[in-house]
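Office hours follow-up: a student asked to see two folded examples consecutively, so here they are.
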Amino acid sequence: MSSVISELPAMDVTQFKHTPFYCSEENVYLLCKTLCENGVADANGSDLFVVFISNEKKQVPLWHQKASTRADGIVLWDYHVICVQRKKESDSEPLVWDLDSTLPFPSPLASYVSQTTQPSFQLFAEYQRFFRIVHAPLFFKHFASDRRHMKEPDGSWTAQPPPYQAIVAQGKSCNNFSTLPLTILISSACFFLKDGVLHNLSEYITMSGTDTLSSLDPETVREAISQKLGVLVSHAQLQDLFTKLP
C-alpha cells in the first residue's frame, strides 16, 4: 500500500456524539454510524474497522489523551476503542478516528500509532498493548452491551449513562438494525436480541499474547477478519495488518 496520506481535512469532533469517560465502544459505534451516514465512509461501513486496545492486565498506556492531567497526555486505560478507516481502492494511508485523542481528527495511522503508543518508550511486558480489529459490519451485527460493567455492586452507576439506549445485537425483529439511521438508533426501543445476547463486551476486550495471529499471510488474515471477534494482533503487527486486509 502506498504511503500517500488522505487529503480528507480535519473534522470537528463536536459533530459526533461522544460521552467522555464512558464506554468508548459505544462512542465508536455511534461514530462509525455517523461516518456511514454523512458519506465519509461506505454506507454499510465496509471500509471501517473497530479496534479494541487492551491486554491481560487491563492496563494500557496511551499518550495524547484528553482525559489526562499530564502534559504528555498519558492515560492508563483498562481498554480503549478507536475506529480505523481503510479505503480498499485507495492509495491513501488508513485513518484513525479517536474521539478521546488530542491528535488531529482523523490522523494517519502511522502518525497516530507513533504518537499514541510511543513505541520507543520501554514498557514492562505486562503493559504491552494488543489490538483486536473487528470489521465494522460485523461489529454492528454482533456487539451488545447493557452497560453492566459501568455499575457498582449496589447497582448504582459509576458515571451517569448517556441518554440514548444501550447497544443491542441485531435480532430477528431488527434484522436491518445495522443499517438503521443514527437518529432511529438513539431513540429505538428495539430489544429483540440475536441469540439472547445482552452483553458481550468481555469477549472483545479479553486479550492475550498467545492468541495473536501467528502469521499475517493473506489467507490467514482474510479468514480471521471475517469472524465475529476479528483479528488479534500485537503492536508490531498492527500497521502491517492493514496492508494485508482483503
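And the second, which I mentioned at the end of office hours:
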Amino acid sequence: MLNDLVGSITKVGNYPVARGGFGEIWKCTHETDLGTIMVAVKSLLLYASDEVGEAMEKKTKRIRRELKICLRLKHPNILPVHGYTSGFGPFMAIVSPWADNGNLTTYLEREDTSLTFVKRFQILRDIAAGLQYLHTNNVIHGDLTGPNVLIHGDGTACLADFGLSLLYSDIVSISQASWTSAFHGNFRWLAPELLGEPEDNLPVRPRKYSDIYSFGGVMLQVLTSKVPYYYLSEAVVTLSIYTGVKPSRSRYPAFSDKYWHFIEECWLAAAQERPSAERVVEVISDEFDLLSSSM
C-alpha cells in the first residue's frame, strides 16, 4: 500500500540539503505512532510546461505507479520508500529513511584514513548485493553513483534513486530535458553508450550493462576515496567518456592489479561482455571473505 504521509511530514530548515539533476532532497521529520523519526523527502525538478493539461494527471499516475514498484522492493541494501507527501512541488514527493552517514562520496571523504580494505569491500559487497537484487527483479538503477549510495549509521550501504532517471525522462517534457541532461554532476560514473544520440526523438535508456559500467566507477571510488576522473573538469570528463578514455590508474593511490582488472571488465566497450550483477557479487564477496579471513 502506498502510504499518504501528508500532514505528518515537517521540514527541518528552510532549504534543501542537496540538489541534483532530478530534484531536491529535504531533511524532514515524520511523526509516527512510535514517535518522531528523521526522513529524507525527494521532490522532482520540473518545468512550467510540465504542469499544464491532461498530461499532468498522467504524469502523477506514472509517479504513483513507480512508487508502488519501489514499495515491493525489500532488501537491506535498497533504500525503502515510506510513502509520499505534498508541499514540495506540483507532484507528490518521495519519503525515505534518513541516512545518518550521508552519501558514499561525502562518507569516503570524511572517513578515508580510517577505512580498511575489509571495510571498503564490505561497502562494495552491500552495493553489489543491492544491484543484484534490482536486476533480479528487472529493475534498472540508471544512475549508480557515489551520491546515490547512502550509508546508514551502522555502516550499511544501500542504493537510492533507482529508476528515478527513467521516471524523470518520462514525466519531463522531451523538449525540456533528455535523459542524459539530468545527469549534471553524475557523468563521472556514466556508461559511454548512454551519451549516444536519441532515436526517433526518444531519450537513450540505461540497461543492466550500463549499471555494471557505473559499478566499475563506484568500485574505483570506494577503493581510493576519489571519484572517477577527479583530476578533470566536468566538460573534459564528458568528452573523455564519449571518446572512450577511462580514468588513469596512475592518478589514483596504488591498489591490487586484480582489483583494477575487474574494474576494467566492468568498463568493457562491448557492453554485453561486461560481468553480470551475479558475477559482481561473486567476485566482491570472495574478496571480502579472503580479506576478512586474513585479519
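Two things to take away from it. DSSP finds eight helices and eight strands in the chain. The chain has two domains: 9-97, 102-293.
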